[in-house]
What does this fold into?
Amino acid sequence: MQISSTRDAGASATPARKRKRDYVLAGWASMAGTTIEWYDFFLYGTAAALVFNKIFFPTLDPILGTLAAFATYGVGFIGRPLGGIVFGHFGDRVGRKSMLLVTLLMMGIPSMAIGLIPSYQTIGYWAAGSLVAMRFMQGMAVGGEWGGAALMAVEHAPAGSKGFFGSLPQTGVGFGLVLSSVAMTAVARLPEADLLSWGWRLPFLASVVLVVVGWLIRVGVPESPAFERIQASGAGTKAPVLAALRRCPRQILLIIGARTAENTWFYLVVVFALAYAANELKIPKPDILHAITAGAAVSLITMPFCGWLSDRIGQRTLFLIGLMIMCAFAAPFFSMLGTRHPAAVWWAMVLGSGVVFPILYAPESQLFAAQFPPEIRYSGISLAVQIAGVLGGGIAPMIATALLAADEGKPGYVVAYMVGLGVVGIICTLLMRLRTD
It folds into this structure.
């Protein structure tokens, strides 16, 4: 009997160890993949600010050239909802894992291609056209990747740890921002002639290394247990996007309302505040960029901590706390920038991107995934999150710029706008219902 018991214990221990290996690997693979994809996404934005106007739009006035470069940056946001729809459909039909591998390639290959695009002097307007096409593909990849990475992390994770593992792909945003900033800072030290001729291409070409590493990590992750149960039971649907719209319109709208506030906060801190501080307050750009990078570095610790905390107090509770802190900190954030004092400016950016943002972002994977049944979860979460991304990342900075102009360069209207979005987010979050499957 004792021999039998020992044998039974050994047999049960092996699947337990395998199960732990699976969810740990899924969590780290999700973070590694999102790090690579956001490295490429942020790298483009930095290059657009520094060199793309001279490389691809040299015939335009410098200001118009910069605007044109940022317009190509905005194309990525247009591609994100389409990516959410396409990859959401196949993620619910074919599987989460395969979509993560496809989106990894769709982000990395265009990034390498950007590093090889000839300049305007060589092929004329075809250069800008190629840039737009590659950027659109990157936008689609990001639109489809986040939902898959979040679901692979939370659907593998055991009960009681879904918030922590769901925060790991979120942590990849900070890693991506730090890596892209370091890469562009390194090549920016080159003489301008070298930077414009070949130096700016190096960070994009380096994506090949990251893509290979990401592929090797992700290819070893087993399929999501939730998706395997769907396949085994035959509970899948032929048109999951349409099913999500038909069965869960309330959940989609609530996520859009809640997530727009978080996404607006992030892009106001890392995009709008950069322009506001540099143009209106005349604070040196390197000072702001260093503060943004420091905030991203801090988020590498605070993001998983907030994910762990959400497992203790609940994802919805932590997200509500984050929205209230965001509303309370909006005015002090701009007041600290307005002092022009280096320490105050540094703390404003670090607190905004390294503390407030993780409180909001870390619990989203599990909170939003819990709004949908497994068979339409990839489609539902991707569609809602990417529409909110357009409203928060694509439109909100332009609205904030217009409000700043309307208030004669003062941030009062921008603060009111941010608080208003926060109140909408609080209401939407309170109305969310959580599923347990």
In short: DSSP finds 19 helices and no strands in the chain.
